[in-house]
Amino acid sequence: MSDERIPLLEASNVTKIFGAVRALTSASLELFSGEIVALLGANGAGKSTLVNVLTGAIRPDSGHVRIRGREFKAASPTDARQSGLIPVYQESSMIPDLSVADNLRLTNTEPAPFRYWLGELGIGQLGLDEEAGGLPLATLRILDLARALASEPEVLLLDEMTAALPTDLVRKVLDVIRSQKARDCGIIFISHRFVEVAAVCDRASVLRDGRTVGNLAIEPGVEDRIVDMMLGGSIDAAAARKAKSADDRAPGLPRLSAKGLSAGTNLADVSFELHRGEVLGVVALEGQGQDELFEVLSGFEKPSGGFIEVEGNKVSFEHPADAIEAGLAYVPGDRAAALLMQRSVRENIALPFSAQVSAWGAIPVKREGERVAEAIERLQIDTRAQGEVRRLSGGNQQKVTIGRWIATGTKTLLLFDPTRGIDIRTKRQIYPLMRKFAKQGASVLYYSSELEEIPLVCDRVIVIFSGRIVDTFNAGDADESTLMRAAHGLALSSAEAA
Length: 498
Description:
- This protein is of the alpha/beta class.
- The protein is built from 18 helices and 20 strands.
- It folds into 2 domains: 9-234, P-loop containing nucleotide triphosphate hydrolases (Rossmann fold, 3-Layer(aba) Sandwich); 239-487, P-loop containing nucleotide triphosphate hydrolases (Rossmann fold), CATH 3.40.50.
- It has helices spanning 47-54, 77-82, 100-106, 111-120, 137-150, 167-182, 194-200, 222-231, 290-297, 320-325, 335-338, 345-356, 365-378, 394-407, 424-439, 454-457, 480-487, 494-497; strands spanning 9-18, 21-31, 36-40, 62-67, 70-71, 85-88, 155-159, 186-190, 203-208, 211-217, 256-263, 267-274, 279-283, 305-310, 313-315, 328-331, 412-416, 443-447, 460-465, 468-474.
- Helix 4 (111-120) crosses helix 5 (137-150) and helix 12 (345-356) packs parallel to helix 14.
């Protein structure tokens, strides 16, 4: 930027490493007074890490942060707040067991300006004595923003502020952002919705793999350039497997059908079919409804609308055990939530067998042992770290979570980001395993935050944006750029995206 003014906020060559993960390698950013800069990048590009560095939530390993030209080293978020840097993070910072008023006291926020901003944001009728934990997610996001605005920030950092909001509240938030710009506040705006970025932002700073790879003025047609910067090259087409066409799918009733599923504030009217012998990919950016979809299908959450069919029969789940009994097995992205870390590989894989035993029935030890051994062999689980599962690598732990369902002969797997945080070698073992599993007649619903995986694993793919399916592809025909555009809602008309 050819502006000779001193930036209100400047980050240069910021790096941050968490163990083996290099979250930021060379991230830089400039923000001037009265300017709104979009911080953009694919999932895992480092956006939230950079916000956490700027606001003192984590300390960088190297690099510089300056406020009005002076070196700034925040030891805590309190230091950042005192310097005028106020964030609104992806997750609500309201403590659920406290009232709204008590949450305000924690940050020394005056009630009067807080109430003013609640009114400007459309929820001025809210009582401050209400317990935060009983409020809807959308309301909590507005509370976080109102609390930030009440502090009169010099720099406002909004990390996916609008992701969980309905349309009417999004409009109010964008109006408030414009009003802050008019009073010379500098704003960093993170959003996966390009229509919002185009509506309020002056420039975009693009991150890829923890590096700043470009700064662009927001102007008509810039979206394609931003997508190219996010990707930095497309997947090797030769590596992509030929996808099945609709005519190649197994005949008969779909193994799993969703009809008009809605849940919470993020999932709205989703319908699809998953067939026998098929891997159906799900592509969505953070907070677009994919979490709710998998939670409904696995029995962790009840839908607010629509219904589910398994083998043509309508089903409803009161508990995850009901989904398992119907043949739907869920593998969450958080391995720790799925495993008994203090137990052995054998015990973890054999866990579903125990659930299948009727009261006072005999445990089929021989059959259990054979199935467990077969799963360990098929998934090439490294059991050299004898004893507790917690001693295995992350990749081997994930294999255990998948292996337990393969061992029980499950017909349908619901895999939520199964390769997140595991090494490339293990990923390349899981891909053909899923293909073989489907070839043997099983079905897999496969959400991945890594777009390059989709053509390697899936037959078809559905793309979810703002809680709705906005596109469907044969996976082999959808390159990374196509999927990225669809996931950002760029396949929609401007009216639909808004």
